[in-house]
Every structure is written in structure tokens, then in C-alpha cells.
Design goal:
With 350 residues, the chain is α/β, with parallel strands linked by helices. The chain contains 7 helices and 17 strands.
């Protein structure tokens, strides 16, 4: 029987959707799901569960000021949320307006520059930016930090720092790799001093990550594309870790998507590319052994991913446990530590 989005639904009280970060990053809660048991801890306890010789792989992308406000030629208001740059002067974007702009239309953004609508690309608009400055530079100068749609407030000054990881360095995302938001510099130092290795990759997260699954059967869903880059040093560190019997632990689903996309052909390859990998139960994981992740939306592709990784029954138990104990959910919420389950194939409704 084909899997459907209904298999990945659950009831979440709205009060559990975190609207702001905690005062300290590592003060968030950590639900450890291992060998059928659930352990309620603090994120600062993570070093107790990561062994010397393990490798943590982080996504070092940086969130762009990707939300731009402006007007159409008619004077009507318009809001542009960048999805991803397509080059120095072109980008895909979500465009909100009373009427969708047509190809050839001009949009004046931030009362500073004009972009041209080249056409549509599915749910997104293809925009051309002026040639005197690159898309990323214009967004950083004139845009606003985008918060996820389930955070019911505008971005504040505090979000400028807290909606970035402490190791963010490559601008290009419109959403944070939220599992990494829990890490403070002192925690990273504690891990390395205990013999844990750290490695880095970049996957630029697009606005498509918040798009709902609009089909009933999963086989009909088309994932959005995201660009990634995996350096040779990370590939070498992963090979050395596995050769020595250590675990590769992805920090966040974005790190996992990049690694598993690059490893689909067999051997993990360094380099850059784009991926629309859609990970659902039955997927064969080749690279990642454990995962640090936040809690994900009902009926979302990320909930399908963690169910594929840890087993649907394990995720069902963990989410029920987290709701009963009032964990904080989504981007500014709490975290989980999951181990890979290669045995479970069945996936009943959550």
C-alpha cells in the first residue's frame, strides 16, 4: 500500500511551538532515543553521548537577510522571499502580492533597486537583479532576516545573532540549520577536548523547506532543490572515522541530506552540486550513523526523513513522549539525538 502524508501526522498543541530562543543555547532540552529507551536531558549533556573517535558534521551555512519589501509598477505592495540565488544576478523567490506579477514586470525593492520578473519556476518566481551588485550582497544590505512562518512575530535585534549558528560563515540560506543553534563555542571545545572530531559542509537551505507536501501519496511529491558543497577534508574525516570504528553524527537534517545525496552513488565524493533527495522509510543510509535534530512539523518531509532514519515506531514514541513532557518544538525548540535503525521497514500512521 503506498505511503501517504497521513502516515506522518500528529497532534501538536500550539503552545509547544517555540516563539523565541532560550537565554542560553545549550540550555535547551535533549531527548536521547537509543535502543528503545528515551532519556530526558539538557543539550549541554550531549558530550556524555558522543564517544572519542566519533565525528560531528556541521552545516556552516549562514542565513541571508532574504526578505525584501517593495512595490510593483502599479504601486501595490510586494514581499519577496529569496529561495536561492541562481548566479550573481538571478534568483528564485517567493513573491507575495495582491496579484502575481507577470513576466517582464518590474519590482522596486527597499526603495533602492529594481528587479525584473523573468517568469515562473513552479511555485517560485525567476527574478533578475541589477548588475552592479550580486544578489547576496543586495540581500544583506537591504533585506530583513526571515523567521519561519510558524513564529508569529517579526524578527527582532536578538534574532540577528540567535537565528545563526555560532559557526555560520557561508551566506546563502533563508532558514537556519536549527539543530546547530544549540551549540555554543564552549560546548564545541568540550567535545574536541574529549576526542570528538568536527567537520564541516555547506548546504544552503531554501524557502522550499517550509512548503507543505501538497500531494497525498509520497511517490508523487517533488522535493525542492538545494545547493551543497562538501570539502575533501570532510570526506577524508568521514572515511577515517568509519575505518576506525567511530560514528558519523550529522548535526541537522541538512547535513544528513548533503552527505546522503553525495554518497548515493556508493563512495562519498567531495565537491558541490544540487540535490532534491527525498528521504522516506525504506531509504538506504550510506554515510550517517546518528543524528542531532530538532522536532519537525506534522506531515513534513523532515518528519519523513527522521522516521526513515530512526524507525517510524521510535519516532512515534519519541514525539508522544516529547508532547506529554511539553518539549519546545521547531526552529527555536528543543533537540533529539537519534541512532540509525536499519531493521524497521514498516511505517504505520504516527
Amino acid at each position: 500500500m503506498p505511503r501517504t502524508v497521513d502516515d506522518f501526522d500528529y497532534e501538536l498543541p500550539s503552545r509547544l511551538i517555540a516563539q523565541a530562543p532560550l537565554a542560553e543555547r545549550a540550555a535547551s532540552r535533549l531527548l536521547v532515543a537509543a535502543e528503545g529507551a528515551l532519556d530526558d536531558r539538557r543539550f549541554s549533556d550531549l558530550p556524555e553521548y558522543v564517544r572519542p573517535g566519533d565525528l560531528l558534521v556541521f552545516n556552516d551555512t549562514r542565513v541571508l537577510h532574504a526578505r525584501l519589501y517593495g512595490v510593483k509598477e502599479s504601486g501595490g505592495a510586494v514581499e519577496v522571499l529569496l529561495e536561492r540565488p541562481l548566479g550573481p544576478h538571478e534568483a528564485l523567490a517567493q513573491v507575495r502580492a495582491s496579484r502575481a506579477p507577470k513576466a517582464g514586470a518590474k519590482l522596486r525593492l527597499a526603495d533602492a533597486f529594481e528587479v525584473t520578473v523573468l517568469g515562473r519556476a513552479g511555485e517560485f518566481f525567476h527574478l533578475r537583479f541589477p548588475g552592479n551588485e550580486e544578489v547576496v550582497a543586495l540581500a544583506e544590505r537591504y533585506g530583513k532576516l526571515p523567521l519561519p512562518p510558524y513564529i508569529q512575530r517579526a524578527a527582532e535585534d536578538a534574532d540577528e545573532g540567535r537565528y545563526q549558528t555560532v559557526y555560520a560563515r557561508n551566506p546563502g540560506s533563508v532558514a537556519a540549520p536549527t539543530a546547530g543553534l544549540h551549540f555554543e563555542q564552549v560546548l564545541l571545545e568540550t567535545l574536541t577536548q574529549s576526542g570528538v572530531k568536527l567537520a564541516w559542509l555547506t548546504l544552503h537551505i531554501g524557502a522550499g523547506t517550509f512548503q507543505p507536501v501538497r500531494v497525498h501519496e509520497l511517490s508523487e511529491h517533488q522535493m525542492h532543490r538545494e545547493r551543497y558543497m562538501i570539502p575533501p577534508a570532510t570526506v577524508e574525516a568521514i572515511a577515517a572515522t568509519h575505518a576506525a570504528g567511530g560514528r558519523v553524527i550529522a548535526v541537522g537534517t541538512t547535513s544528513m541530506r548533503a552527505l546522503e545525496a553525495a554518497g548515493r552513488g556508493g563512495a562519498l565524493a567531495a565537491g558541490s552540486g544540487e540535490t532534491d533527495i527525498f528521504i522516506t522509510p525504506g531509504f538506504r543510509f550510506r554515510v550517517v550513523d546518528a543524528l542531532v535534530t530538532n522536532f519537525h512539523l506534522p506531515r513534513s518531509t523532515l518528519l519523513m526523513l527522521v522516521s526513515a532514519f530512526a524507525g517510524c515506531a521510535a519516532i512515534r514514541r519519541a514525539y508522544a513522549h516529547a508532547i506529554a513532557r511539553e518539549y519546545r518544538f521547531f526552529s527555536y525548540g528543543d533537540a533529539m539525538l537519534l541512532s540509525r535503525d536499519d531493521e524497521e521497514a514498516a511505517c504505520d500512521a504516527l
